[in-house]
């Protein structure tokens, strides 16, 4: 058994970094070294480094949350190396070692070390995968939440706890030293992720120091991007699989599907890696690509997950092995999602949608419906409801399937599936949503009366009728019969 480290790379028997890692300099500081970052941005950089490029764009990972200790300990124990395993649908697993992360700092250990690394002249990009919740904005108003206790702490004269406090402190140092600011690059699955990051970081910086906030607004680049790859959370089974299949002892491998995509707005203050040489698309405007992913991939995940869970399925691939569900999903994409998109240069939408079904149906990834059902109050309003609203403005609106997805969420939020088994609802609004969903039997419109989530859709007769019809069908006939009737 080979314990993963620099010293064992030559004996592993799988693809390993072909560059001298001792010559890699830190140029990127990344917050949120989770499953997605390690099979996406870190992979693109590893590919570039294997071509002899981007050796001054090595990654220093940053952890700020208590559970990041596990990542710190794993990476530090194995020279920041990890195994990436691509799980192909035919059961073939392709493994390689990624070497583009060259250091990792756990902020609670030494916040100043994190600030100093970002303030270093060699640091050109600070990137983020901190999830949508990490941007700390009110989900109704979109305004930065200055009342968050950790934000209040970071606005005082204390060592920063949050990404906002740490990054802003580093920008302050760079401003004082006359250094060009680094680019802040969001890699999170949020529409207009760069715009969102800019709005929130400027709000924090202005609350800290008005002149600093104005400087951040004026001089810091926040490029938008669209990111895509299914990367399930690493499990104990994944760790055991790497040992058994590849004879490698890796404390924290990463697993993923074969597909990956990155579309990046080409707007950086101090240059960037040549991502286009390894398959990324550098564009002037990311919006059309974002809408394609959010309204086809992400909204389709919502379209399959509640119906699938209620029907008794527990994995995405199980749902997408059922031809009735596949037809429902394709019809949602073709007739409801696609008409709301902008032209997408270089993309065959017909093929893209069929590829999505193939990706969802990959039995090796084992993407759980429980994961896809989580945090619905964040996801549905951003991925699916915009489709409904744009369709309602069209001459012949098509919303029956979208309204039914909302009804399936309401039914799921009741907390029992169709077999009578309990559902563990995971949502920041769990208590509120479940309390409302309990009233579905006495008031079939109870769930969508929640204006903090659905806005004025309760006032639209077409949507209300479609929703009510789907809710009655779910109650009387069940999830499977409902999607068949809607195909």
TrEMBL record:
<dbReference type="InterPro" id="IPR000669">
    <property type="entry name" value="Mannitol_DH"/>
</dbReference>
<comment type="similarity">
    <text>Belongs to the mannitol dehydrogenase family. UxuB subfamily.</text>
</comment>
<dbReference type="InterPro" id="IPR036291">
    <property type="entry name" value="NAD(P)-bd_dom_sf"/>
</dbReference>
<dbReference type="InterPro" id="IPR008927">
    <property type="entry name" value="6-PGluconate_DH-like_C_sf"/>
</dbReference>
<dbReference type="Pfam" id="PF08125">
    <property type="entry name" value="Mannitol_dh_C"/>
</dbReference>
<dbReference type="InterPro" id="IPR013328">
    <property type="entry name" value="6PGD_dom2"/>
</dbReference>
<dbReference type="Pfam" id="PF01232">
    <property type="entry name" value="Mannitol_dh"/>
</dbReference>
<protein>
    <submittedName>
        <fullName>Mannitol 2-dehydrogenase</fullName>
        <ecNumber>1.1.1.67</ecNumber>
    </submittedName>
</protein>
<feature type="domain" description="Mannitol dehydrogenase N-terminal">
    <location>
        <begin position="27"/>
        <end position="276"/>
    </location>
</feature>
<feature type="domain" description="Mannitol dehydrogenase C-terminal">
    <location>
        <begin position="285"/>
        <end position="474"/>
    </location>
</feature>
<dbReference type="GO" id="GO:0019594">
    <property type="term" value="P:mannitol metabolic process"/>
</dbReference>
<keyword id="KW-0560">Oxidoreductase</keyword>
<dbReference type="GO" id="GO:0050086">
    <property type="term" value="F:mannitol 2-dehydrogenase activity"/>
</dbReference>
<dbReference type="InterPro" id="IPR050988">
    <property type="entry name" value="Mannitol_DH/Oxidoreductase"/>
</dbReference>
<dbReference type="InterPro" id="IPR023027">
    <property type="entry name" value="Mannitol_DH_CS"/>
</dbReference>
<keyword id="KW-0520">NAD</keyword>
<dbReference type="InterPro" id="IPR013131">
    <property type="entry name" value="Mannitol_DH_N"/>
</dbReference>
<dbReference type="InterPro" id="IPR013118">
    <property type="entry name" value="Mannitol_DH_C"/>
</dbReference>
């Amino acid at each position: 058994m080979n314990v993963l480290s620099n010293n064992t790379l030559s004996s592993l028997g799988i693809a390993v970094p072909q560059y001298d890692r001792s010559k890699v300099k830190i140029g990127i500081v990344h917050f949120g070294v989770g499953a997605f970052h390690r099979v996406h941005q870190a992979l693109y950089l590893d590919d570039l480094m294997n071509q002899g490029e981007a050796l001054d764009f090595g990654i220093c990972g940053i952890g700020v949350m208590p559970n990041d200790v596990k990542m710190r300990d794993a990476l530090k124990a194995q020279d920041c190396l990890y195994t990436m395993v691509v799980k192909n649908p035919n059961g073939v697993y392709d493994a390689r070692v990624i070497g583009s992360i060259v250091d990792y700092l756990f902020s609670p250990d030494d916040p100043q070390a994190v600030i100093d690394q970002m303030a270093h002249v060699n640091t050109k990009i600070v990137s983020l995968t901190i999830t949508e919740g990490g941007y700390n904005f009110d989900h109704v108003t979109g305004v930065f939440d200055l009342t968050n206790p950790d934000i209040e702490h970071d606005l005082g004269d204390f060592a920063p706890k949050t990404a906002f406090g740490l990054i802003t402190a580093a920008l302050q140092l760079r401003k004082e030293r006359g250094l060009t600011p680094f680019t802040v690059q969001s890699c999170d699955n949020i529409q207009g992720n760069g715009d969102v990051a800019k709005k929130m970081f400027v709000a924090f910086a202005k609350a800290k120091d008005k002149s600093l906030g104005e400087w951040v607004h004026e001089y810091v680049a926040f490029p938008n991007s669209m990111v895509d790859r299914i990367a399930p959370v690493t499990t104990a089974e994944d760790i055991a699989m790497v040992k058994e299949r590849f004879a490698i002892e890796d404390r924290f491998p990463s697993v993923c599907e074969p597909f990956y995509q990155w579309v990046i707005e080409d707007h950086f203050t101090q240059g960037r890696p040549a991502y286009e040489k390894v398959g990324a698309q550098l564009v002037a405007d990311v919006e059309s690509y974002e809408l394609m992913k959010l309204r086809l991939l992400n909204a389709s995940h919502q379209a399959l997950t509640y119906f699938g869970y209620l029907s008794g399925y527990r994995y995405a691939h199980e749902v997408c092995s059922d031809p009735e569900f596949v037809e429902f999903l394709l019809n949602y994409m073709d007739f409801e999602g696609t008409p709301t998109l902008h032209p997408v240069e270089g993309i065959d939408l017909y093929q893209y949608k069929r590829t999505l079904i193939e990706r969802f149906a990959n039995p090796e990834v084992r993407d759980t419906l429980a994961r896809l059902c989580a945090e619905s109050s964040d996801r549905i309003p951003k991925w699916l409801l915009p489709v409904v609203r744009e369709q309602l403005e069209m001459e012949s609106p098509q919303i029956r399937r979208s309204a039914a997805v909302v009804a399936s969420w309401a039914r799921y939020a009741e907390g029992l599936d169709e077999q009578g088994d309990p559902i563990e609802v995971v949502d920041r609004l769990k208590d509120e949503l479940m309390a409302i969903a309990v009233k579905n039997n006495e008031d079939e419109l109870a769930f969508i009366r929640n204006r903090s989530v659905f806005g004025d859709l309760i006032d639209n007769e077409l949507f209300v009728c479609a929703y009510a019809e789907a809710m009655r069908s779910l109650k009387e006939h069940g999830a499977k019969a409902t999607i068949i009737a809607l195909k």
